[in-house]
Design brief:
Elements: H1 3-9, E1 15-16, H2 23-34, E2 45-50, H3 53-62, H4 67-71, E3 74-81, H5 82-91, H6 102-125, E4 129-133, H7 140-146, E5 153-162, E6 164-166, H8 176-179, H9 190-200, H10 203-206, H11 208-215, H12 217-226, H13 230-240, H14 246-254, H15 257-262, H16 264-273
Antiparallel strand pairs: 1-6, 2-3, 3-5, 4-5
This protein binds flavin mononucleotide (FMN).
Length: about 280
Amino acid sequence: MNFYEILMKRRSVRSFKDQKVPQQIIEELTDAANNAPSGGNIQPLSIIIIQDNEARKQLAQFLDGQPWVQNAPLSLLFCIDFYRVKKWASMSDSDFFGENAFLQFLIAYADVICAAQNVVILAESYGLGSIYVGSILTKINKVRKYFSIPNYVLPVISLSIGYPERIPEKICKLNKSVVVHKEKYGVMNDDGIGEAYNNKYKEFYDNFDKYLQKAYVEAIEYDKQLDTNMVEKLKERIEKFKIKNPAQFLFNIRYPAKAMVAMNKKLFRELKEAGFEFI
Ligand SMILES: Cc1cc2nc3c(=O)[nH]c(=O)nc-3n(C[C@H](O)[C@H](O)[C@H](O)COP(=O)(O)O)c2cc1C
């Protein structure tokens, strides 16, 4: 399989075999992370390797009980690390204020994601599966405390890795022509946008179970791994809130628009407590 084929077959994996990732592979995955592009090559990155059973269980609890986090034999916790950079700068009679410089923060966030994605791709090429968990940003304090993370270091994403038990077959994506623009940004008209998302989520209207398989496989995996009743509950909520289309499902139920804005308060407070403040 060539590289393109590997990338086109990659899926987020949420169900893992009870089989450890060999140390040699962990070394290579972390080498790939460390060799990722980095703005100015400053490398404001730290990665915590988590394999211990208790730590995996704790991490899963912090991350809303997502069972795949506990079940994966390996999680890598990717952090923006300005602690090390600041220390080095001050020891060198220099200043570093990345924790107050939003631009530098954004670049560091991009650095971290480049590193994490290197791991995803290399893992895939070794027949491993992986799943990002971004909800770590809603539990910064708890995660920092448990993993002894100092000020100026921010855990931003966790990546769970292991040998796949089940791999979701298909997932709906926008047509490439919607995403890719030639030379200049091409503004789509309302009909074009409607059609693009109708194509992406066409099963929503006539086969909700199939839609979930393609668009919200987490719900199915929750039910399989925790014996919950998430899919049924979702259907009840769709009725109750009179959800008529996939956008309403996403932004009224899964990521409620106002609640997402309301989360700013806690996020900014926890960022500040970690030493990051931009205004
Ligand atoms: C930044 C980021 C955060 C994510 N967080 C979660 C998460 O908390 N739980 C989860 O099950 N999947 C999470 N995912 C995986 C997405 O749900 C998944 O990438 C998306 O459904 C597309 O599926 P695919 O990766 O198979 O293409 C995350 C992905 C990204 C890039």
